[in-house]
Design brief:
The protein has 370 residues and is of the alpha/beta class. Helices cover 41% and strands 19% of the residues. Helix 2 links the parallel strand 1 and strand 2. Helix 5 runs parallel beside helix 6. It is globular.
Length: 370
């Protein structure tokens, strides 16, 4: 082959390859992950350890559901014990992105701003943030109507409590937690109009020592039922030790208070995590907000135990009515603690008001730790 002919051949191959690459690259890039036969790496960021038997444990059960259902199409990884304050959230997210994660779930409210900031730097990665409200084209938000379960346990408390007052160990005064306190008390007051709830704020999601201290303070003040919006099993352990009734949070906590646990509000994330992961695999993922409750199986009630058949019947009927939409926990009339009207008779509190709730209903007493 002459040098001139060789040069012509090289030129033809180079130009043909460039045209082929230019024409087909956008098409290949648009294909779903499943069609490219690539394994999708799915990352999770956890506030506590997966073995906390509460909030993080249930999110990790959702991760395991992704592994179980989607099998060889995915690889799941997680970062645990990531505090909400400081630079650790961004560092954890950067590690997951650099490790190849194409979908990342951040599972605590305080992760919201770092999630958005990192998502802006990596528009090709999909992010899902639990319990927040800031979204981008590549950031979705999701949460559950936990307050539905709290209304159910409130009704149980209204029937069982002899003192007519319960103790509530609460994490942070954000709308999600305020909704839960109010829903619990509204449920209790639907049975006993004079019922009261004493609230201790521990300003932490997961601090077993502080949660136990708060629970003991509430017992000392005469409550005969304990509930919580914190992540450890400390509160139900205190209840079992003091032989007073309690409710579990996020996961089924029966093993930790077998004689005095009445039921648990169980956060079920598995179906959602599988659905959203499959959407990425199939190329249909879009940013959206999800606020699911009992009707879509995102909130479940544990077994009703240590109560009479009549109270169990009330709990089952209340759960069924909320699931079907017959009953809404925030149906009026509802009076705030300051005496003003929050919801009129025959009305239901609007969704915007639910999502921004920053007030107590009548009957809430805030207690300081001694």
């Amino acid at each position: 082959m002459t040098r001139a002919l060789f040069a012509v051949v090289i030129f033809f191959v180079t130009v043909t390859g460039a045209i082929f690459s230019w024409f087909y690259q956008p098409v290949i890039g648009a294909l779903p992950v499943a069609e490219l036969n690539e394994k999708l790496k799915v990352g999770f960021v956890y506030l506590g350890p997966p073995g906390d038997h509460g909030w993080t444990y249930q999110h990790d059960q959702g991760r395991l559901a992704v592994d179980r259902v989607l099998g060889d199409q995915v690889e799941t990884v997680f970062e645990e014990g990531v505090p909400e304050e400081g630079p650790e959230v961004e560092r954890a997210l950067e590690r997951l992105v650099k490790d190849g994660a194409g979908l990342i779930f951040t599972t605590s409210f305080g992760y919201m701003n770092p999630t958005v900031e990192v998502a802006e730097r990596y528009p090709e990665v999909k992010f899902e943030h639990a319990t927040g409200y800031k979204r981008l084209d590549n950031v979705s938000t999701y949460s559950s109507r936990f307050y539905e379960g709290r209304y159910v346990i409130g009704r149980i408390a209204g029937h069982i409590s002899k003192a007519g007052q319960a103790g509530y160990v609460a994490s942070f005064p954000i709308p999600e937690v305020m909704r839960g306190i109010n829903a619990f008390l509204l449920g209790a007051r639907s049975v006993n109009p004079n019922f009261r709830v004493k609230v201790v704020w521990v300003n932490s999601w997961f601090d077993p020592d502080k949660e136990a201290e708060a629970a003991k303070e509430l017992v000392a003040q005469g409550v005969d039922i304990l509930t919580q919006h914190t992540d450890s099993t400390a509160v139900v352990l205190v209840a079992e030790e003091n032989e007073i009734y309690a409710f579990g949070q996020a996961s089924d906590m029966t093993p930790f208070a077998p004689d005095f646990l009445l039921t648990s509000i169980i956060n079920h994330w598995g179906d959602y995590y599988v659905e959203r992961t499959r959407a990425v695999l199939d190329g249909f993922w879009k940013s959206k907000d999800t606020f699911g409750g009992m009707n879509v199986n995102m909130v479940r009630m544990g077994a009703f135990r240590n109560m009479s058949d009549s109270v169990k019947g009330v709990a089952e009927a209340t759960t069924a009515d909320i699931t079907s939409g017959v009953l809404h926990p925030f149906a009026g009339p509802i009076i705030k603690r300051d005496g003003s009207r929050a919801v009129g008779a025959g009305e239901i509190l609007a969704l915007d008001a639910l999502l921004t709730m920053d007030w107590y209903v009548r009957g809430v007493d805030v207690v300081a730790l001694q």
